[in-house]
Specification:
Chain lengths: 356, 360
C-alpha cells in the first residue's frame, strides 16, 4: 500500500481563498501546543501574541506602521509574480529607494521646508525602479535569469549603502560612526495621528492596495499580466508584448519597493543607517503569496505578518519566551499554507499494490 | 564637543565596600520594580548579548527582582517600538545595549521622563539617559603583547566588524602592544561589516591564516574564528566572553565584558531614587573588564601578560601615549603626548604596523 498524489481536475476557487485562513487556524492550534509544551497557558499565550499587541491605540497604529512597507512591496511583487517575472531583489530596490531619498534629504539639508520631503518621494521611486530596471534589461537583452540578477543586486545595494554612510554621507558630528546625520524635520513624513507613528506612507500603502486592486483585477493590463503568466503562448498570439510587461513588472515592483524604502528612512528611522535593511523585501515575498497575489489578500497577509512581529515582542516581554517564537510561528504558517495549497490542487489516493 | 568620560571606580567601590548589594532591604518595593533590557543579538551568541544577559541575571539575583529582555531587536525602526513598549509596561529602568539604539532611546526617553534609560556605547545623553561603555582597548593591548611573543610569522590576522572608532582604537592598541615586544609585528585586517555572522567570521579567519597570519584576533562576536584556529592548531583570542570551551587548545585569553556590578548598581539606584544621568567608560581598574585566564602559552609569556595587565590597572602604563606613528610612518602622537578620552573616542586613523586601508 502506498500514497499517490493526483492532480484535481477542477480547482475550487472557494478553497483557494480559504486556504490561507485554514493555514492561520492550523498555525494557532499548533502554536498553542508549543506554548503548552513550554509550560505556558496556551490560550493566555495566544492572546498575548495575537490580540494584546493591538488592544491599545498605539499598538494598533504600530501594526499598520510595520505592515505598510510589507504591503507596498508585496503589491509590486505580485504584479510580476502574476506574469512569471520573479523579482526576488525587492530588498535591494528598497535600499536604493532609501538611498536616493536620503540623497535629496541631505542635499537640501539646509532647506527646512516641506518640498524637500515631497521631492524625496519621486527620488525613492526612481532609485527602486532603476534597481529593478537592471534585471529587466539583463533578462530581455541577455536572457539572464532575473531571480539570480535581482537577488545579487541586493548585496550590491547594501554595499553601496555601507560605502555612503561610511564615506561621503557620514554624519560630520557622529564620531566616525557609519550613519548619516538625522534628517531635518522637513524631510520626515508628516505624522497624521498624534501619539502614534502613523505617517503619510501608511496611507500611501492603503492607496496602493486600491490602485493595485483596480490595476490587477479590473484593467486590461492586469488581464495581460495574468495571461502572460499562465499561458505565455496565448499571450504571444494575442499580441501582448512580453517585453513591455516584463519591463513594467520590474519597474513597478522596484519603484514600489523604493517608495517603501523612502518612507522607512523619512520617518520611522529619520536617517540612513547600515541597519536599514531588515528583510522587508524578502518578507514581502511571503506576504504576496499569503495574499494569493491579490491586493486585498496582500493587505491582510501584511497585517498578519506584522502582527507576528509585534506579538513576538509581546511574548518576550510578558511571557519571557525567546525571540525565536516569531520565526517558528512564521515557519509553521508557511508550512501549513504550502500544505493546504497542495491538498487543494491535488488529492491523495491510497493505492494498493506495488508502486509503479 | 568633547566626550567626557568618567571612570566608574568610585561609585562601584563605595557600593561594594558598604556590602550594600546583597543586603538590599526593601523587598516589598523590589518585587514591584521592573528592569528592561534590549539586545541586538540573540542571547545565545556567546559574545556581546550573552554577556549583557549574564549581567542582567546577576543584577536580578542581587536585587531580588525579575527583569524583562527582548533579544534580536533590529537597530532600525523596530527599536523605538520595543523600547517604547518596555517604557509603557512599567519598566523603571531600561538598558539598550547596542550603538544603533541611541536615537530611538532618546526619542522614547523624551516621552517618559520618569523612566531611567541606560544606553551602551553611545554618546548622546539626557537627564534620564546615561551612557556607559568599557575600555575594551585595554584588553587588546595585552593581547598584542601576547601575540608579539607567541607569533612566529610576526603576522596577526585581525577580523574587524565595522570601521568605527571603537574598533579602530582596539586595532591600534593591539599593534602598540605587539610592537612593544616585537617591533616588526604586523596586523593583516579584514572588515566583515557585521558584528555577528559566524559564516563570514570563519571565512575571514581562514583567508587571514592562508595569508601567513598565525594568530587570530577578532572584533566580532561569535566563537567561529577561534574554532578555525583550533582546527588548524593555531592560536587566537576570544571576544566579549570567555570562549575557552569552544577552543580549548587555541584561546590564549579573552576580553570578558563584566556588566554584572554596573547593572546591579544602576538598577539599585533607580529603585532607591538616587539615579542620575552620567557617562561611564570603565576598564580593568573599575572591574568592568576582565581577562579570561591566560592559557595555551609558556610561563614567561603568561608572566608578561599578567604584569602588563597589572600595569594598566595601576595606571603605570598608558596605552595611547606618544610617540605613535600613523600607518605611513608619519608622527601622529608626539613623544610624551597622551591622547585624551575625546581623541580616543573619535579615533579614525590606523597606527603603523596595521596593513590595508579602512573600508570606505
Amino acid at each position: 500500500m502506498h500514497l499517490e498524489i493526483i492532480a484535481r481536475g477542477e480547482r475550487s476557487r472557494t478553497w483557494a481563498y480559504l486556504s490561507p485562513v485554514l493555514a492561520i487556524v492550523l498555525t494557532l492550534v499548533t502554536s498553542a501546543f508549543i506554548f503548552a509544551f513550554l509550560g505556558k497557558d496556551p490560550l493566555a499565550a495566544l492572546k498575548v501574541m495575537w490580540i494584546d499587541p493591538v488592544l491599545t491605540k498605539r499598538g494598533f497604529a504600530e501594526l499598520f506602521v510595520k505592515a505598510a512597507p510589507l504591503v507596498m512591496i508585496a503589491i509590486g511583487l505580485a504584479l510580476g509574480f502574476r506574469a512569471n517575472v520573479w523579482n526576488i531583489g525587492a530588498e535591494g530596490q528598497f535600499i536604493m529607494g532609501a538611498i536616493f531619498a536620503t540623497g535629496v534629504a541631505l542635499y537640501f539639508y539646509e532647506v527646512q521646508n516641506w518640498p524637500v520631503w515631497l521631492a524625496m518621494i519621486p527620488a525613492g521611486i526612481l532609485g527602486g525602479a532603476l534597481w529593478g530596471a537592471i534585471p529587466a534589461f539583463l533578462k530581455l537583452r541577455f536572457n539572464a535569469n532575473e531571480i539570480l540578477t535581482s537577488l545579487m543586486l541586493t548585496y550590491v545595494a547594501s554595499l553601496i549603502l555601507l560605502y555612503l554612510v561610511a564615506g561621503p554621507w557620514k554624519d560630520p558630528d557622529g564620531y566616525g560612526f557609519p550613519q548619516s546625520r538625522m534628517f531635518s524635520d522637513a524631510a520626515n513624513s508628516p505624522r497624521l495621528i498624534s501619539g502614534t507613528r502613523i505617517h503619510v506612507g501608511v496611507f500611501a500603502s492603503l492607496g496602493i492596495v486600491i490602485l493595485g486592486w483596480f490595476l490587477l483585477q479590473k484593467s486590461m493590463l492586469g488581464f495581460q499580466l495574468k495571461v502572460l503568466g499562465q499561458a505565455p503562448r496565448a499571450a504571444a498570439f494575442a499580441g501582448f508584448s512580453t517585453r513591455g510587461l516584463t519591463w513594467l513588472s520590474l519597474l513597478v515592483g522596484g519603484g514600489l519597493a523604493g517608495l517603501a524604502g523612502m518612507f522607512e528612512v523619512a520617518g520611522p528611522i529619520g536617517q540612513l543607517t547600515p541597519a536599514l535593511p531588515t528583510g522587508y523585501g524578502f518578507t514581502a515575498i511571503i506576504v504576496a503569496f499569503l495574499g494569493r497575489l491579490h491586493p486585498i489578500g496582500i493587505l491582510f497577509g501584511g497585517l498578519v505578518l506584522a502582527l507576528s512581529y509585534l506579538g513576538g515582542e509581546k511574548a518576550q516581554i510578558a511571557l519571557g519566551l525567546p525571540a525565536a517564537v516569531v520565526k517558528i510561528n512564521q515557519g509553521i504558517l508557511l508550512f501549513y499554507l504550502l500544505a493546504c495549497d497542495l491538498f487543494i490542487r491535488y488529492r491523495v489516493k491510497i493505492a494498493t499494490g506495488r508502486a509503479a | 564637543m568633547l566626550i567626557k568620560r568618567r571612570t566608574f571606580t568610585k561609585a562601584l567601590g563605595a557600593g561594594l565596600a558598604a556590602g550594600a548589594l546583597p543586603a538590599f532591604g526593601h523587598q516589598a518595593r523590589a518585587a514591584d520594580f521592573k528592569a528592561g533590557y534590549v539586545y541586538v543579538g540573540p542571547i545565545g551568541d556567546h559574545g556581546w548579548s550573552y554577556q549583557h544577559d549574564q549581567g542582567r541575571l546577576a543584577a536580578d539575583k542581587a536585587l531580588g527582582i525579575t527583569s524583562t529582555y527582548v533579544e534580536k531587536v533590529p537597530e532600525g525602526a523596530d527599536a523605538e517600538r520595543v523600547i517604547r513598549e518596555l517604557a509603557e509596561t512599567g519598566h523603571g529602568i531600561i538598558f539598550t545595549t547596542s550603538f544603533g539604539f541611541m536615537d530611538p532611546t532618546l526619542k522614547v526617553a523624551r516621552d517618559y521622563p520618569e523612566v531611567k534609560f541606560e544606553h551602551a556605547t553611545g554618546y548622546k545623553r539626557a537627564d534620564n539617559v546615561s551612557t556607559y561603555n568599557i575600555r575594551f582597548y585595554e584588553a587588546r593591548y595585552i593581547q598584542g603583547v601576547i601575540a608579539g611573543k607567541m607569533s612566529t610569522s610576526g603576522v596577526v590576522g585581525y577580523i574587524g566588524s565595522i570601521p568605527i572608532p571603537e574598533v579602530i582604537m582596539g586595532m591600534n592598541a593591539f599593534i602598540l602592544g605587539m610592537r612593544s615586544v616585537n617591533p616588526q609585528g604586523r596586523i593583516k585586517q579584514v572588515f566583515i561589516n557585521s558584528w555577528y555572522d559566524p559564516g563570514k567570521e570563519a571565512d575571514a579567519a581562514k583567508a587571514l591564516l592562508d595569508q601567513g597570519a598565525d594568530i587570530i584576533a577578532q572584533h566580532t562576536d561569535s566563537p567561529a574564528p577561534l574554532q578555525v584556529a583550533q582546527e588548524r592548531g593555531l592560536k587566537g583570542f576570544g571576544q566579549a566572553s570567555d570562549m575557552i570551551k569552544f577552543a580549548p587548545d587555541a584561546q590564549l585569553t579573552s576580553a570578558v565584558d563584566f556588566w554584572d556590578d554596573y547593572y546591579t548598581e544602576r538598577t539599585k539606584a533607580a529603585m532607591e531614587g538616587s539615579w542620575a544621568s552620567h557617562d561611564v567608560w570603565g576598564g580593568l581598574k573599575s572591574g568592568m573588564l576582565h581577562m579570561a585566564p591566560y592559557a595555551n602559552m609558556p610561563d614567561d609569556v603568561k608572566q608578561m601578560a599578567m604584569a602588563t595587565e597589572a600595569d594598566i590597572r595601576d595606571g603605570k602604563l598608558t596605552i595611547f601615549k606618544g610617540p605613535i606613528n600613523a600607518q605611513d610612518g608619519s608622527a601622529k602622537v608626539a613623544a610624551g603626548e597622551v591622547l585624551d578620552d575625546g581623541a580616543i573616542a573619535g579615533m579614525d586613523w590606523l597606527a603603523q604596523g596595521v596593513e590595508g586601508d579602512l573600508p570606505k
